[in-house]
Design a protein that fits this description.
- The protein is an alpha/beta fold.
- The chain folds into 4 domains: 8-161, Rossmann fold; 167-196 and 203-231; 243-407, P-loop containing nucleotide triphosphate hydrolases (Rossmann fold); 411-461.
- It is 41% helix and 18% strand.
- The protein is built from 16 helices and 15 strands.
- The protein has a 6-stranded mixed sheet with strand order 8-9-7-10-11-12, with helices on both faces. Strands 2-1-5-6 form a 4-stranded parallel sheet, sandwiched between helices. The chain has a 3-stranded antiparallel sheet with strand order 13-15-14.
- A hairpin with a 2-residue loop joins strand 3 and strand 4 (91-92).
- It starts with 7 loop residues before the first strand and ends with a helix.
Length: 462
């Protein structure tokens, strides 16, 4: 394969009871987008309706043969132990050919015929992406039957996160999730017992797989300690901003959150037409600036079947959403599957205890809709804001909506600042809107408009 040619992948999905045709098709389309983000070229899609995933290899024998035609595999799960794990007289078999009978004593000739009739070797897929979370044994069986690398949905998402992580915090979070995912999937090598155990050298000792798993657990523990130190610094920064109005942009991955963040804050953030382009929380001031300043934060995108380990690892990053005064839930209104994406976002917000926060639904990418579609959406979601992040007028309207939201809770009060406390003036002007000032022999009387908590804090310090 030429060096500039993308690895070929096949999508494998099973439509389970309770999942309609549209939802199943949308899930496979999304898996294809994940594959594209990972740098893979999808050459085929195989799907099967089943009451449950096949215990051995996800799909039935017929579909397994069909899949093998595209990958150059046998289409048969070899019986017995894989050759690299077979031992003779306590030693690992050196040559896989020596173990051929043990691996597959009755090779199926029909499988070979299927492969011959399948894709040419040059066009064979080398990766199989499964649209489900599968067990280690199911993955191994699929690999042995297809001769291709097998990644389930969680593995694909983890690989993308690992590629896109930029900050040290994001890299630590992804590595914890990746190792947690890999720990139960470590395979037995051929090293045997690492040492003899028990009194007088008796006993099984610690096997290589046990040693590897212990190393993974130790590594995860160290990563969590490193992450805790970073999270403590981030928590300190959030506490300093506690009294400032904050807006968190949340939503499904690739809904246009970073584009909207860029438009609202006039900053040069990465904007890419790919899933999970943003993993780090970015905080910027709303532009044009208001008094007091309103901070806007971008957050990691959500997706269906987001691995629980990733949600746990990124919980501190998602604190920006949980501690915000207002959530902008951004939706790609041009995506036919957007109603289910709204549900996914709502479920994740509930998982991080942010479901009860004030929320504004933003239907983005209105520039891709015709007049009839816009009218239907406005009728279906009367309280939502339909806009395009590419339209300055739409962004200005969203800016005004955000400002109005925070203004409604403001109160007008008079603060007395004694002449001995003039150092508070800078903080007053930055956190309050100053409406007027007057002086007397006691000090400076400042009429301000601000949030009640800010007024109370300043009055206590004056």
């Amino acid at each position: 394969m030429p060096s500039d040619e993308k690895p070929r992948a096949v999508l494998l999905g099973v439509q389970l009871p309770g999942v309609d045709d549209a939802a199943h098709a949308a899930s496979l389309i999304e898996l294809g987008r994940l594959a594209k983000t990972l740098g893979l070229a999808v050459v085929a899609e195989i799907s099967q309706k089943r009451s449950a995933l096949a215990a051995a290899a996800v799909v039935g024998e017929g579909k397994l043969h069909e899949l093998a035609q595209l990958t150059g595999g046998s289409g048969v799960i070899p019986s017995g132990v894989p050759a690299h794990r077979i031992r003779v007289g306590g030693k690992r078999v050196a040559d896989e050919a020596d173990a051929e009978d043990a691996v597959d004593p009755h090779p199926t000739e029909a499988a070979g015929d299927d492969v011959a009739a399948g894709a040419p070797a040059a066009a064979q897929a080398t990766v199989v992406l499964v649209d489900h979370d599968i067990s280690p044994s199911q993955a191994r069986n699929l690999e042995r039957a297809t001769g291709a690398e097998v990644l389930d949905r969680s593995a694909v998402i983890l690989a993308i996160f690992q590629r896109h992580a930029r900050s040290r915090e994001a890299r630590l979070q992804v590595e914890i999730a990746r190792l947690t995912y890999l720990a139960p999937r470590l395979r037995e090598g051929g090293g045997g017992d690492r040492q003899s155990g028990g009194i007088g050298g008796k006993g099984a000792g610690e096997s290589q797989i046990e040693l590897d798993r212990r190393k993974v657990r130790d590594r995860i523990a160290q990563l969590r300690r490193d992450l805790a130190a970073i999270e403590q610094d981030a928590a300190t920064r959030r506490r300093r901003r506690a009294d400032q109005p904050t807006v968190a942009i949340v939503g499904y991955t690739n809904a246009g959150k970073s584009s909207l963040m860029r438009a609202l804050t006039s900053t040069n953030l990465l904007v890419a037409d790919q899933l999970f382009a943003t993993l780090d929380t970015t905080v910027r001031a709303l532009q044009p600036e208001t008094v007091p300043r309103i901070l806007v934060s971008d957050t990691v995108g959500f997706i269906k079947k987001l691995p629980h380990d990733l949600v746990a690892s990124f919980r501190s990053t998602l604190d920006a959403a949980r501690e915000a005064s207002l959530l902008l839930q951004v939706v790609d209104a041009a995506d036919p599957d957007f109603p289910s994406q709204i549900t996914v976002t709502t479920d994740v917000l509930a998982d991080i205890d942010a479901a009860d926060l004030p929320r504004l639904l933003v239907l983005n990418k209105a520039d891709k809709l015709d007049a009839a579609q816009r009218a239907a959406l406005q009728s279906q979601f009367p309280d939502a804001l339909l806009l395009s992040a590419k339209s300055p007028d739409d962004v200005a309207a969203l800016h005004a909506t955000i400002v109005t939201f925070f203004e409604r809770d403001m109160i007008e009060e008079e603060l007395l600042v004694p002449y001995t406390q003039q150092h508070l003036l800078g903080e007053i002007h930055s956190s309050c809107r100053v409406l007027g000032e007057r002086y007397d022999e006691i000090g400076r009387h400042i009429q301000v408009r601000a949030h009640p908590a800010v007024v109370a804090r300043l009055r206590a310090r004056a």
